[in-house]
Write a structure and sequence with these properties.
Largest sheet: 5 strands, mixed
Shape: elongated
Distance between the termini: 51 Å
Structural class: alpha+beta
Helix content: 55-70%
Strand order of the largest sheet: 1-2-3-5-4
Oligomer: single chain
Number of helices: 12
Order of helices and strands: HHHHHHHHHHEHEEHEE
Strand content: 5-15%
């Protein structure tokens, strides 16, 4: 009986919040009327996009409320309303999500007050179920109906607020457009970095090497000792140039990934990070199938960036890396027990990680409360 009352209480709270939202929606009718009159009069057409944005926020609040009850998130799929007024008006009117929200709003005026059916069940349920459960040891009959009403309200909300296939497709196209722009920007930044490294590093050393060899050739006949010293210096310059060229190549695609795969490359990276790093691998056997090269490279750079940040900023002597092969791709997680409080806008390198992962249609989740721990988890879709 006690557990039944707790469930019925939670269901009643859910229905009361839903009823409060219905009351707010009735007040929202005034905003809709003002927007309609202003749009018809043309002078107030700027109100239409703002009203649609406000409706999106109300629908978003209802999605979160429903997800809190059901435990399943309801996705959102809206086109971004920005740009000049004509573009904002066009997007607000043509976005399939606007029609979805309006349809839900009209239906919500009717079914949102289910709490009016739930409240009378409490006195009846306390008497009937109190006698049935307390004296007759039977199952509750009346109070579970309050939970069923809350479930019914959540099912209707889920069905009405779920984006249409057209809205999901439009959101998908918009997201791909944004990720493509980020990928192009990241590619351009990477090319500039490679050019800078080659120009300032290897190229300068090769020029110096050529000059020293030329001086050695001139001094060879009249001063062999000086020529020998110049050749020694030239050899050192050549070795340094080779080392810098290896660094540039490693920045493009680490050769160790090709030789040892992601698991071996990450273990080598962990061994040279300066931290005590544990590497846990699940489903990535050395002789098993490998992820595509682009996915392995993205996973490698995620681990490299996360371990670099941990060594520089976290203050933690240890870190943990986990690589998991999932049914739909690769999961990479890096955690440390440092001070936390990661600021993604402070040059932590996470923006580059997000761009690299987004280019592969992956997702990045960062959890870093002040005081730690910091956990960076990346999902990279691929076919094994």
């Amino acid at each position: 009986m006690r557990a039944t009352m707790r469930k019925a209480g939670r269901a009643t709270v859910h229905l009361l919040v839903a009823a409060a939202m219905v009351f707010g929606m009735y007040l929202f009718i005034t905003v809709l009327l003002i927007t309609a009159v202003g749009t018809l009069a043309v002078v107030g057409c700027w109100l239409l996009p703002e009203t649609v944005i406000l409706l999106r926020r109300i629908a978003g609040a209802k999605r979160r409320l429903t997800a809190a009850w059901t435990g399943r998130e309801i996705p959102e799929a809206y086109r971004t309303i920005d740009g000049p007024l004509t573009e904002r008006l066009r997007t607000a009117v043509r976005d399939p999500g606007t029609l979805t929200d309006l349809r839900w709003m009209l239906a919500y005026y009717v079914y949102g007050a289910l709490v009016l059916l739930a409240l009378p069940l409490w006195p009846v349920g306390l008497v009937v179920d109190g006698v049935g459960c307390g004296l007759l040891r039977r199952r509750a009959v009346v109070l579970p109906w309050i939970v069923r009403l809350a479930d019914l309200e959540a099912r209707w909300s889920t069905a009405l607020l779920r984006p249409s296939p057209q809205a999901l497709l439009a959101a998908r196209v918009e997201r791909l457009t944004a990720t493509r722009a980020d990928a192009i920007a990241a590619h351009g930044a990477e090319l500039r970095r490679i050019e800078r490294d080659l120009h300032d590093g290897a190229q300068a050393r090769l020029v110096s090497l050529s000059l020293r060899i030329g001086l050695a050739k001139r001094a060879y006949d009249r001063d062999p000792d000086a020529a020998r010293k110049l050749l020694d210096d030239a050899q050192e310059q050549a070795e340094e140039a080779l080392a810098e060229l290896r660094d540039v190549v490693r920045g493009i695609h680490p050769p160790i990934l090709t030789d040892r795969g992601l698991t071996g490359a990450v273990r080598a990276l962990a061994a040279g990070s300066g931290l005590l790093v544990s590497v846990d691998v699940d489903g990535l056997e050395d002789d098993g199938p490998r992820a595509p090269a682009a996915v392995e490279a993205a996973g490698y750079f995620v681990v490299a960036e996360a371990l670099t940040n941990a060594a520089k900023h976290s203050g933690s002597p240890t870190a943990a890396v986990r690589l998991v092969r999932t049914r739909r791709g690769l999961r990479v997680a890096v955690a440390d027990e440092g001070r936390g409080g990661v600021d993604e806008s402070g040059g932590s390198g996470l923006l580059g990680v997000r761009r690299r992962v987004a280019a592969l249609d992956g997702t990045v989740r960062v959890s870093s409360p002040v005081g730690g721990p910091t956990v960076i988890e990346v999902e990279l879709p691929c076919v094994w």
